[in-house]
UniProtKB/TrEMBL annotation, chains A, B:
It comes from the Bacteria. This is Ornithine cyclodeaminase. GO terms for biological process: carboxylic acid metabolic process. GO terms for molecular function: oxidoreductase activity. Belongs to the ornithine cyclodeaminase/mu-crystallin family.
Length: 330, 330
């Protein structure tokens, strides 16, 4: 029995963003085809100032793969005291036909990649076909990933960006312009960025509304990334009134996504949520229907996105003879 | 950042049963000292005839170690179709100070070892000091592990064994007599074995009572191993009436251990459960108090037993320069 070991460097070279987008579509479709098991995650909270480690598992009958992802985060003293990042990740990939451990891969890059791809998948399903201006609130790693993915599925004419820290905003502008040749306007306030948007991405660690309802112009597609647990919030809940609301997982989004806020405030009812994105990808429900409607995609992240992306990385590694093989038993 | 890889063969040579017993005591004590986090496990059920894979995680503040154990089982076609056992296991061990992945080890042996050790720990705390005859119902791998562990903590004068299959019973007798030089009586019925016991071990896959209340003589210590989920049962619930009942985890045993049956039948109340074994090991509650009382240890198995045992294996490997180091990232 042989297990493939893939380092962070291996993983980096083994999957393109276009491939990640394909695997995330595959994940959403499998989820809404009843082919997925994703039990509630296990979380361990370390004593302060340390953060936490979470374990997420998923079984996908479509690819007969089981994955377990361990993700740590919030260890601020790691770089100085232990010489490692403040968060790390590991993925175990099992062949579901036998439960053989097929692969152990570094998981540091996986969450960022598959979360970035989720926004791009929603753009294909929900944004106006003539959308060209992207606004991004937040300029961290996930904001970069969103841009990197969305440019695979549309031509971005210009980007309007905003974050609270001017130095980070300037660095983001420089990086994106150099990497992709897309002009970036460093907005002087969140409102200016939002008002320019055909597509609005929020990828902050916000714990209260950053975007107000009156700022968003008709026809905007919103990608709400930041809110994936209780206590987080990026939007004034009023934005959801009358919008076409699409979620990755209904059960997750109504309990801990951005969608929880307008539900809790009584601004929308659960029946007013249009559906899960997999239903649109499968053709079971329509995507955008009018140019002037506001569409919202609430992405909380699912284990099954890790599953399909990790499986693609593994398949590419096998095809390209990458990685290191190890026998845990004879 | 370096991660230690340990094969099944490595693990086998890296820990003695006496050490496993020590780590299980350590686990029980940490659990009852408020130093342990063990979230509810995640389970994935594969389509028939395949079985399942479970993920159990534990954080032990006493050794600053986090473990995740993946355990599969119930894949009857694995040997013929895939050339691997019907169940396998993998353990990830993280340094809880940073969440660095310190070790990936084969986990095939771990559950058997730490479950075997649990019975021996209970013997020290609950069996009569003059106990010398052990009865064992069930003659599989776990029955062997129980004997192997108990002989580390007492002198076994003789063993009375019983199982449904005469060939397996004969093989068990031969193996145990040769391995340990302890005379084994192959009992003609379960009752005969039980009636001879100072210490009674049940390690079957029973789904209904195998042992009746009237068979158990006063002063017997019972080690109930087999029942760790709903649908399993080894004892007539009446046995629990008036016995000193000790559990590994109260929440687990009252919901899915052997203890659930007498509770469900109204034979005992939760208040009549004496306590968790860690409370006895810590001296917070007495163990056995009278030679003629029946003591029952209900063992459902805890993630924290994997934690302390895996950490010992890892420490021994580092001390002995065993295993293979691998860098998942630079």
């Amino acid at each position: 029995m042989k297990t493939l070991l893939l380092t962070k460097e291996d993983v980096k070279g083994l999957i393109s963003m276009a491939e990640v987008i394909g695997t995330v579509e595959e994940a959403y479709k499998a989820f809404n085809s009843g082919l997925v098991q994703q039990p509630g995650y296990m979380g361990l909270h370390l004593p302060a100032p340390r953060g936490e480690i979470d374990f997420k598992a998923g079984y996908n009958q479509a690819n007969e793969t089981i994955t377990l992802k361990a993700s740590s985060g919030g260890f601020p003293h790691n770089p100085a005291e232990h010489g490692v990042p403040s968060g790390m990740g590991t993925v175990l990939l099992f062949d579901a036909r036998s439960c053989v451990l097929a692969c152990v891969m570094d998981g540091s890059l996986l969450t960022g990649l598959r979360t970035g791809a989720s926004g791009a998948v929603s753009v294909k399903a929900l944004a106006r076909k003539d959308a060209r201006t992207v606004a991004v609130i937040g300029t961290g790693n996930q904001a970069r990933m969103q841009i990197r993915a969305i440019r695979e599925v549309m031509t971005i004419g210009e980007i309007h960006a905003w974050c609270r820290t001017p130095e980070k905003l300037a660095a983001f502008k420089d990086e994106i312009e150099q990497a992709f040749g897309i002009p970036v306007t460093a907005a002087s306030c969140a409102r200016d960025a939002v008002a320019a948007a055909d597509i609005l991405i929020t990828a902050t660690r916000g714990t209260g509304p950053v975007v107000e309802a009156g700022w968003v112009k008709p026809g905007t597609h919103i990608i709400a990334i930041g809110t994936d647990q209780h206590g987080k919030q990026e939007f004034e809940p009023e934005i959801f009134r009358g919008a076409r609301i699409v979620v990755d997982s209904l059960s997750q989004c109504i309990s801990k996504g951005e969608t929880w806020h307008p539900l809790n405030a009584g601004i929308i009812t659960q029946e007013q949520i249009h559906g899960e994105i997999g239903e649109i990808l499968l053709g079971h429900k329509p995507g955008r229907e009018r140019d002037d409607e506001i569409t919202i995609f609430d992405s909380t992240g699912m284990a099954i996105q890790d599953n399909t992306a990790a499986r693609k990385i593994y398949d590419n590694a096998v095809a390209r003879n990458a990685g290191t093989w190890f026998s845990f038993f004879q």
